[in-house]
């Protein structure tokens, strides 16, 4: 095994708060171990375009609290082709890169795994996505910040819902994953929560609304994950209005603010730990693994397993949410 | 003129952060002047339904920092009818109410003016709406909080826009008024701002985008007031995509979170001053006027004038915004 | 075993964000199981004074997002005496209370344990304190919010530290516990962190400052737990100034803001889960145990063990923090 | 008069949120007028050290939302000497600087005025300080953000004060100026506010506390400006405890977080307007003036007047605060 002297780090796929903290940890830990660190700008696209630049310990000062990613990100179609990956590898070789740290979600890990098998370059992955749906870690970098962003928005919506005694549908991110919706739903005391992983029939919502009405409860919040199978927030709201008169409802789609903002303390600590261990793990000769923290301990999961295994929120938490909202 | 002994306060129309602070100031100042204060719940609707209850100084403790309104609000169709207003007046008489403080927007003032002419009951109004479009005051209660809420959301969106080098359209509230859009636009360094009061041609946006491209500027924010005449955020985004290829744009509609949240310090101070002066002004025999703060001084504007006169943001500020974004 | 029909809940000791969410969960779950819920105001003091009142499901609506505790809290000297506890028990009997849920820290659990042994009344405890130092749970209710509050304050201090190139000492809460200091330190990229559990010599701080100077690093943050054995923030700053010239340092003590504020999403979810399980656990006949969540699973720890066992932050995290700050 | 082709901007004295937005506006407007912009790092100190670098429109992208100042700041003893100023002038001449924009407080304007009289170089000033005590403008850049930071901290302290029924003293910034204390006091419903400009006798505080006790009001907040003539928060708290038993009070000093943080929307708009007009005003041949916004209009005030005239909060607002807190 080649002794590692130069490592490169990049962020890929959707961005998530805490990615900068992870990049900082990777670069600072590399510096501590006397390695040269490089940043690849715009993920796999940048790797193909040769956008590889040295990044020193001092370049990552004062970024730990910043949302977004200083290395930018992009979705890359070209990296899905053997030609694209060949070009990427040649750029890495030319820069003398010995190992890679990839920060992103399942798509990033998929690319990393394929690349790692085609070319003999050690690569490890850090789970960076607000969706929290990556197997091999309790929490992904960005999730905690996203649920706090969502809960703060819902708190404000609650003020106006309460003033007007309205029914409010709030759609949160989560194309395939209901973690954000579940946590935001519990944290806002929502009467009903719609997740992609579980089918919540419309009648359940109607039932909740009726019970609330009986109790003279003035308003109600419904949280809907964007990827909910029976429809997004707007669709559910419309179906409710069609079927049952009398509900003056409003729909808010939180949108892309959930991806940004200063990372929460937990996201900074998680990102720091994972970035720190990434270097240590590479120096021990590991490759083709995703790092994660499970039960407060570092865990390594082969990319193949991280990609193919699923993780979903507990349905018992949904049950609890229902009881607590009445 | 009857000596005023019992006053009632209510909030009406759309809610705004700072309404609670205003209610608190009205009640506390009434108490200081040994008046009995009553709260009318759910605005004019509640006045018709007789939902009038005493409210003591201690009932308004600890609400100054809360968004929404403890008196709730509602839009009332019935108050637009003479029968509805007659019922309302009878309820007030039965409760012995001598004077009213109405907190809301133009709709609230319109109702107050009609009521005040039909029935001989002194009534003054405080400008409570996030839109800032009420004539007779530099700022309305709720505007400052709303622009801060909007700017915080846009800051988060900016993180992800910057990471992905995208074009982002953000729609803010303002059905007839561009104040929120203008301030949010300047405060976020937006490349283009669409207001209801001024026609911004699509070509101007295209021009901004071209110039940005020439400068290698990576992302761009466009702020659109919901009542923009040439279309809301989604419509403008679609027209842009149809006309010109190559813009990967996203649209976020901030929605109802702009109405809620803990009021900013300025909104608390403004609301406190207006609520405080409302009682003093009533005790001096004033009626049928809207209170406002202009140039840091209390101003009284007859409801008729407050309703009929318009106020709009300076177009010079739009010009400045354009220059600063390049 | 008496069938449980009436339960009472109270908060005791220092308050923590999320206590209201826990109270809400207890009351709503009790209601779901057709139990009558009572609130005891001002903790053990209130129990002795007989301040026990029914609390219905609707009384806890809209409190999940509020800091502080609607049941108030107090430190009670009288409860440490047999007479005090006797009076408390008589009040409970008179109200017909069958079981208790105590929310607080070690002091609360100590009182609960003694009480539970003296009188045959089932009582369980929920860990509510910002210090995170309670054994038997990964996180305590309030910790996550506190570290976010601290990190937001430190982010603001960082802006001014960076502008002026100064050395800043920030003191955070934690009389016996360094969790807040450690997480805030890592999350702010602090050059040095002083915890009560580990002795950090002053020379280490000097060393960090020298290295930073060599790198032309402009400013530095030092986080100090209030209970640090070698001195609090002011004391360390003074010793540094005495020993070594040239450090223009400022000291900020974050103080009591760390105890308040709207609970974070995680604190709301944690509090909800624990409050929910508290009722279930009582109905199963448990008593004299503290509830906690360990590895995402509910854990019951006898009060004796929860009180006598200690929990402290990993020293390896301190080591990592040092490396990442250079 | 020399045609202006190169302008330099710097920030000096205490930093304030919004300074970056002002720098951005100066640079972007200069660029629009085809002027070359330079940044002087570390204020007058940097001017003496020759730390003058070109700053392009693109260098100020993405800083509008950031607290602190990218140009850093410093207090300069050397600039108070003729030799220091001579060196500064020579550096400016060498760089070909034709005009200066100085952003800071009274100290900055004093230096600017002296410099402008000694050497024939046009210089204008923008009021940047959180204290809001600069004559010639309704609000200074940074004040609005600071009062929001203070009010958010006080809101959190209020949660714990309310839970424990305590008396809380909160000290805010304002060595000579009571604006922050007054606005924070009104916005938090404080029972008593201590400002540097007005003497509030201790007996008044005692009176407020007695009245509150009579009303069974559970807690009380007292806001103290650090420069209050009769003592800071700690001193007042101690005198109260000595003189009158029975008040369990806590003291929090908010400290330097008040200087930092992302600027509020109003501060960004104010800073943008002032920075924009600075260039326009220089191009019209103005010099030796401070810019300000009074009644929403641009105002120019000769440095001499801006420095010698004072501005202080209205005592009527203190009176109102007292009434509203009971």
UniProtKB/TrEMBL annotation, chains A, B, C, D:
<dbReference type="GO" id="GO:0070095">
    <property type="term" value="F:fructose-6-phosphate binding"/>
</dbReference>
<dbReference type="InterPro" id="IPR015912">
    <property type="entry name" value="Phosphofructokinase_CS"/>
</dbReference>
<dbReference type="GO" id="GO:0006002">
    <property type="term" value="P:fructose 6-phosphate metabolic process"/>
</dbReference>
<dbReference type="GO" id="GO:0042802">
    <property type="term" value="F:identical protein binding"/>
</dbReference>
<dbReference type="InterPro" id="IPR012828">
    <property type="entry name" value="PFKA_ATP_prok"/>
</dbReference>
<feature type="binding site">
    <location>
        <position position="106"/>
    </location>
    <ligand>
        <name>Mg(2+)</name>
    </ligand>
</feature>
<comment type="similarity">
    <text>Belongs to the phosphofructokinase type A (PFKA) family. ATP-dependent PFK group I subfamily. Prokaryotic clade 'B1' sub-subfamily.</text>
</comment>
<keyword id="KW-0324">Glycolysis</keyword>
<feature type="binding site" description="in other chain">
    <location>
        <begin position="256"/>
        <end position="259"/>
    </location>
    <ligand>
        <name>substrate</name>
    </ligand>
</feature>
<feature type="binding site" description="in other chain">
    <location>
        <position position="158"/>
    </location>
    <ligand>
        <name>ADP</name>
    </ligand>
</feature>
<keyword id="KW-0479">Metal-binding</keyword>
<dbReference type="InterPro" id="IPR012003">
    <property type="entry name" value="ATP_PFK_prok-type"/>
</dbReference>
<feature type="binding site" description="in other chain">
    <location>
        <position position="226"/>
    </location>
    <ligand>
        <name>substrate</name>
    </ligand>
</feature>
<feature type="binding site" description="in other chain">
    <location>
        <position position="215"/>
    </location>
    <ligand>
        <name>ADP</name>
    </ligand>
</feature>
<feature type="binding site">
    <location>
        <begin position="105"/>
        <end position="108"/>
    </location>
    <ligand>
        <name>ATP</name>
    </ligand>
</feature>
<feature type="binding site">
    <location>
        <begin position="24"/>
        <end position="28"/>
    </location>
    <ligand>
        <name>ADP</name>
    </ligand>
</feature>
<feature type="binding site" description="in other chain">
    <location>
        <begin position="173"/>
        <end position="175"/>
    </location>
    <ligand>
        <name>substrate</name>
    </ligand>
</feature>
<dbReference type="GO" id="GO:0046872">
    <property type="term" value="F:metal ion binding"/>
</dbReference>
<dbReference type="Pfam" id="PF00365">
    <property type="entry name" value="PFK"/>
</dbReference>
<comment type="pathway">
    <text>Carbohydrate degradation; glycolysis; D-glyceraldehyde 3-phosphate and glycerone phosphate from D-glucose: step 3/4.</text>
</comment>
<comment type="function">
    <text>Catalyzes the phosphorylation of D-fructose 6-phosphate to fructose 1,6-bisphosphate by ATP, the first committing step of glycolysis.</text>
</comment>
<dbReference type="GO" id="GO:0005945">
    <property type="term" value="C:6-phosphofructokinase complex"/>
</dbReference>
<dbReference type="InterPro" id="IPR022953">
    <property type="entry name" value="ATP_PFK"/>
</dbReference>
<feature type="active site" description="Proton acceptor">
    <location>
        <position position="131"/>
    </location>
</feature>
<feature type="binding site">
    <location>
        <position position="250"/>
    </location>
    <ligand>
        <name>substrate</name>
    </ligand>
</feature>
<comment type="subunit">
    <text>Homotetramer.</text>
</comment>
<dbReference type="InterPro" id="IPR035966">
    <property type="entry name" value="PKF_sf"/>
</dbReference>
<keyword id="KW-0808">Transferase</keyword>
<dbReference type="GO" id="GO:0005524">
    <property type="term" value="F:ATP binding"/>
</dbReference>
<keyword id="KW-0547">Nucleotide-binding</keyword>
<feature type="domain" description="Phosphofructokinase">
    <location>
        <begin position="6"/>
        <end position="282"/>
    </location>
</feature>
<keyword id="KW-0067">ATP-binding</keyword>
<dbReference type="GO" id="GO:0048029">
    <property type="term" value="F:monosaccharide binding"/>
</dbReference>
<protein>
    <recommendedName>
        <fullName>ATP-dependent 6-phosphofructokinase</fullName>
        <ecNumber>2.7.1.11</ecNumber>
    </recommendedName>
</protein>
<feature type="binding site">
    <location>
        <position position="14"/>
    </location>
    <ligand>
        <name>ATP</name>
    </ligand>
</feature>
<feature type="binding site" description="in other chain">
    <location>
        <begin position="217"/>
        <end position="219"/>
    </location>
    <ligand>
        <name>ADP</name>
    </ligand>
</feature>
<keyword id="KW-0460">Magnesium</keyword>
<keyword id="KW-0021">Allosteric enzyme</keyword>
<dbReference type="GO" id="GO:0030388">
    <property type="term" value="P:fructose 1,6-bisphosphate metabolic process"/>
</dbReference>
<keyword id="KW-0963">Cytoplasm</keyword>
<dbReference type="GO" id="GO:0061621">
    <property type="term" value="P:canonical glycolysis"/>
</dbReference>
<dbReference type="GO" id="GO:0003872">
    <property type="term" value="F:6-phosphofructokinase activity"/>
</dbReference>
